[in-house]
Write a structure and sequence with these properties.
With 327 residues, this protein is mainly α. It has a domain of 167 residues. Helices cover 52% and strands 3% of the residues. It has ten helices and two strands. It has a two-stranded antiparallel ribbon. Helix 6 packs across helix 9. The protein is globular and about 60 Å long.
Length: 327
């Protein structure tokens, strides 16, 4: 089929155009698009796959912009067209290749880089002003809401975490811009959205708690210990985790690749991603107290306890109660 907006040739199961990002439905192959017949449509390769990869795993249009590799640049990403996915190495390798492919695509369309460029200029300006001892209240407010001080504390590991956090923030910003600029697409009720992003069942409880604990410790890492000024970094991470919970993509594929079933729809994977959403959001607000010990203790207990209970359940020591739902 073909994209009704730009005429790009697409695989039959595509949800979005991997060239312009436009949502697509089922368009017959013999239907004209933008007054062009399929023969007139410029040939564009929309699916890339390797002979060594499972047939179910390929590059396809991103379900929602900004989810793969933090999705800071580009409209395409890695997704599974069925539940079967390869091992972790293949998922990471494919994701890295697609990330650089998306950068190349962005360089051909510089307007995609405008939000990231503007954000980089704001960060640089604010940090230069602070280094010169100029830090008025407006600059402090802007610094707080743009995560400008990420990587400025906590030594070497704080710098590494801050770089990661800034990548997360930039990805969330570009994803949010894409969300508001995109028209059409599948509609969900408010209740369905909440359940898809944060829902938990008996079958996903321990993975859910593990995700919350992991998010709390990861938030400490990306904040470099300066949790109060890193509030927006936590909110950005929660936003991207929520997008992943609702639509899948790289994060779910990566987590799913570690399961025995190699299935992104595994209940443990869904629980972990939803737990990350809750954990990052909770960490951002808890961090405002600037009492890092709360996050350290709570995160460690939830992470270790959740992993132990998942192992016990997997070995049959702990069994699910009646009526457990699989999500």
């Amino acid at each position: 089929m073909f994209c009704p907006k730009c005429g790009n040739k697409l695989p039959d199961n595509a949800k979005f155009c991997d060239k312009c990002g436009n949502p697509v439905g089922s368009v017959p192959n013999n239907q004209s698009v933008n007054n062009q017949t399929p023969a007139q449509t410029p040939p564009v390769q929309s699916t890339v796959k390797r002979a060594s990869e499972p047939q179910a795993f390929r590059f396809s249009a991103l379900n929602v912009s900004g989810e793969a590799a933090y999705g800071a640049i580009g409209n395409t990403a890695m997704s599974a067209v069925s539940n079967a996915i390869p091992g972790p190495g293949k998922v990471i390798g494919t994701g890295v290749k697609q990330f650089f492919t998306s950068i190349g695509a962005a360089l051909k369309d510089p307007k995609r880089l405008i939000p990231a460029f503007v954000l980089a200029v704001v960060w640089l300006t604010l940090n230069i002003l602070q280094a010169c001892g100029i830090n008025p209240i407006p600059a402090q407010i802007l610094s707080f809401f743009t995560f400008a001080n990420g990587g400025m504390s906590g030594g070497f590991f704080g710098a590494v975490g801050g770089i990661l956090g800034k990548g997360i923030f930039a990805g969330a910003l570009v994803s949010l811009i894409g969300l508001f600029s995109r028209k059409g697409g599948a509609k969900r009720s408010f209740g369905e959205t909440l359940k898809g992003a944060f829902g938990v069942s008996r079958n996903t409880l321990w993975a859910y708690l593990t995700g919350i604990g992991a998010a709390m410790l990861l938030y400490l890492f990306i904040s470099g210990g300066a949790t109060r000024i890193s509030f927006m970094g936590g909110i950005a991470a929660a936003f991207l985790s929520t997008r992943a919970a609702l639509s899948g993509g790289f994060l779910k594929n990566l987590l799913g690749s570690f399961t025995k079933s190699k299935n992104a729809s595994n209940p443990n994977v869904s629980g972990l991603v939803r737990g990350l959403s809750v954990g990052f959001a909770a960490s951002a607000f808890i961090g405002l107290s600037n009492i890092n010990l709360i996050l350290i203790i709570t995160g460690s207990v939830l992470l270790v306890g959740g992993i132990v209970m998942m192992i016990l359940r997997a070995t049959g020591v702990v069994k699910l109660g009646k009526g457990a739902q699989k999500q």
